[in-house]
Amino acid sequence: MLPPRSDFPADFTFGAATSAYQIEGSAQGGAGPSHWDTFAATPGNIIDNSNGSRACDHLNLWPQDLDLICDAGFDAYRFSTSWARVMPDGVTVNPEGLDFYDRLVDGMLERGLKPFLTYHHWDLPAALADKGGWQNRDVAAQFADLCTTIHDRLGDRIASAATLNEPWCMAWLSHFLGHHAPGLRDIRAASRAMHHVLLAHSTAMQSLRAAGAKNLGIVLNFETQHPADDSDGARRAADVQDAIYNQWFIRAIMGQGYPEAALEGIGPHLPDRWQDDMATIAQPLDWLGVNYYTRHLNAPAPGLWPNARDVPGPLPKTQMDWEIRPEGLSEFLVRLKTDHTGDLPLYVTENGMAHAEGDLVTADTGRVQFIADHLRACKSAMDQGVDLRGFFYWSLLDNYEWGWGYGPRFGLVHVDYDTMARTPKDSWHAFRRMLTA
Ligand code: GCO
Q1: Cross-strand bridge partners of residue 218
Q2: 19 lines ligand 1 (CB under 6 A)
Q3: Mean pLDDT, residues 166-185 taken together
Q4: CATH number for the domain including 157?
Q5: Does residue 18 line the site of ligand 1, with CB under 6 A?
Q6: Exposed site from 109, 113, 135, 334, fewest CB < 10 Å?
Q7: What pTM did the predictor assign?
Q8: 357 annotated active-site
Q9: Taking a C-beta distance cutoff of 8 angstroms, is the pair 74, 30 a contact?
Q10: Domain count, the chain
Q11: Average pLDDT of 225-239?
Q12: Count of Cβ atoms closer than 10 Å to residue 212 Cβ
């Protein structure tokens, strides 16, 4: 059972989250190719060699998807706009793309849902990727143009907006670890991307503020980094991963500078005179979005920096093989307040699990338990003084899980990828009981 809604303040926001490439269908509606389309077209990059060309066909089925959010009793919907749909070549506007989001936002308001917009959730136009994408400093100004273009059209109806989703994934997972588009394993490319994503975020913040936008933030992901044992090597490995993963972005944004343990390896490859950008990067936020899923165990890996490797942990795991550790969520919320964000309002913008139980597509009591435990972790952080304003479940629908394709099922609602039929699972009903009681 989920905790009662009355455990949370009356104005606490409950929502469901999705992202454009994972649900819309990238081949329709005049969108241009994004680097996810080209990455997915390369054999071996996606487990099932699938792509987001059709995804959940949300571009056509969005009214029923909004109904599902509304009928469950949610207050808000966190969605993203696709850069490649709004600007197929990265710069020129596709009116059909903007029209789609315009209708979508009106659809939310008609159903009493607050629109929580994320300007970018990874579908960078291939034309910009050709020019180096996040490695190219020009991307900052181009991203700011995208944001103000979208703001001009939707800004009068948006409750809250985030510039970027998970810059760690955009820069490190994709340019150093090679798991996400553009699939590079190159420390110079990764280091440049680590800096330029922040420059893009802050340049967009400045342009959006100048255009009168309100309630602006960014969404960062946090994963607990523990040492696999009590050796010095394991502790060092965990510290370096923590610096890259959990400190790089928030420290820079809060004006605390890049963490030393990450600069050791990344510093030599940063763009010239990167220090000159640090004041710009520290733009004030109105709120911070926290995505939390799991923890990692780190063992030393002698050889090359960062000298760390992941080892499997002993805790129960999701369909992604991610360890389930709800207390990590309260730990991060408290740590953020104490070390970085102070009184800044926080939102859990993503938390959820990939999960499948037997043959009955609606059976997911394991997910209900997962959500209940993480909601209690939120409550515990609030009891410790954290100004947490909302919780968004990832995800409304089963959808395209990037390099994992369509296998992992994160949804409150099951999607049959042949018929596109949506079927609410136990967890959707559990939210409905909680939120409409
Ligand atoms: C992320 C993204 C989502 C994922 C989800 C599950 O956190 O990686 O925001 O797009 O689908 O997190 O991996």
Answers
A1: 288
A2: yes
A3: 98
A4: 3.20.20.80
A5: no
A6: 109
A7: 0.98
A8: no
A9: no
A10: 1
A11: 98
A12: 9
